[in-house]
Amino acid sequence: MRVTASRVTAFERPRPHRYLHLTDEEGRHAIGEASPLAPFSREDVAACDRALAHVAVRLGEIDDDAPAAGAVAAALQRLGRSLSAVPAARFALETALFDLIGRRRGLSVAACLGPGGYRSVPVNALLLPDPLTTLADRAAALAASGFGVIKIKLRARDEAGFARELAALRAVRERLPLPFELRLDPNAAWAPDLARRRLAALVPVAPSYVEQPVDAASLHRLGACAVPWAADESLADPERVEALLSSPGCAAFVLKPAILGGLLRARELALRAQARGIAVVITHLCDGPFAMAAAAELALSLPLPPLACGLAPHEDLAAFAAAFGGLDVPQLARTGAVQSSGGPGLRVTSTWASAGHD
User: Fold this and answer.
1) What is the tens place of the pLDDT at every residue in 253-282?
2) Which of 139, 216, 263, 292 has the fewest CB atoms within 10 Å distance of its CB?
């Protein structure tokens, strides 16, 4: 296979993002997405534009007989280090290549990535804490709608605020007793000593884990705590991964392909974690439809099923759909789960795509 043309389409809403279009020698088209989000991403869309410019002439031949993952890895290697500092652009290129190869071979992107062997993965719902007075009611409504796992953001910085959040979380747990799963996420806001105290205070709430309770540089030193914790932002630094794999307190790796540099690296981290008995969650960076679909296919490709993933449709997807003039993402069609595309490639469709952009 040879990629004969590539171009980038720019969108500015709901935030600046880019779509990479690839065309092969038989006229097939595929799309990948770069949607960096400050302050979590290291790059902006201008960096993505530079990294994705003229990729077709640099990719060379892509082996139609090699396993898809190996063919994509070899193609990316030929680009050298031009994408190493631009994870969102690398994710876009990988997504487009897997979409294109899947279309050529009649395989879903999940099947191109690896032999997962299952057709759906549950997803968690997400709740913001405010207003705390309605948190239990909102959680119960989500559970009644079909979600078996709820992740709740924590925002309090002082002790009084945390005490109010803790009381609201206790009310949630009373409404949704075990084995219903709760996850918590303070977005790396706690200092290590404070994190240990607050994790102990959260024992009555029985969260399955608290995601990234401390900053990226400190997490691997947190150790075993009263409540398990999960790694998220810390995983963006390859030098910290081995320490996190060996940490006695780490219950899960929360993997965002857009930050980690694409599907291949995220899947490699997932395999390493699962081999160590650490659970895996695939999630997003409030990405658009093509990146969300690719992340869902990644979750479906793992040899062991991941935990409920953070891939439920988010509010910004409606804005992406409006920009495209309508949108169909088959991976997100079920409430409470993501599922296979059911056919070759990503199979994301829209009015924008059918008008000749795809």
Assistant:
1) 999 999 999 999 999 999 999 999 999 999
2) 216
- Rounded CA gap, 76 and 66, in Å? 14
Instruction: Note the pLDDT of residue 352.
Output: 61
Alpha helices by DSSP H, listed for the chain, are 45-52, 55-59, 68-77, 87-105, 109-113, 135-145, 159-175, 192-201, 238-245, 257-260, 263-275, 289-301, 316-324, 351-352
Pairing of strands 149-153, 181-185: parallel
Q: Is the pTM of this model over 0.90?
A: yes
How many CB atoms are located within 10 Å of the residue 282 CB?
Answer: 30
pLDDT tens across 113-169, in order? 998 778 899 999 999 999 999 999 999 999 999 999 999 999 999 999 999 999 999
Containing domain of residue 233, as a range? 120-345
3-class secondary structure, 191: coil
> In Å, what is the CA distance from 290 to each residue of 127, 202, 287, 337?
24, 37, 8, 17
CA distance 356 to 349: 11
The enclosing domain of 69 has a CATH number of 3.30.390.10
| 186 and 327 together in one domain | yes
* Residue-wise pLDDT tens digits, 157-205: 999 999 999 999 999 999 999 999 999 999 999 999 999 999 999 999 9
> Is there a single domain that holds both residue 189 and residue 309?
yes
Helix (H, G, I), strand (E, B) or coil at 311: coil
In this prediction, residue 353 carries a pLDDT of 56
Domain closes at, from 59, 84, 107: 107
Which amino acid is located at 334 in the chain? R
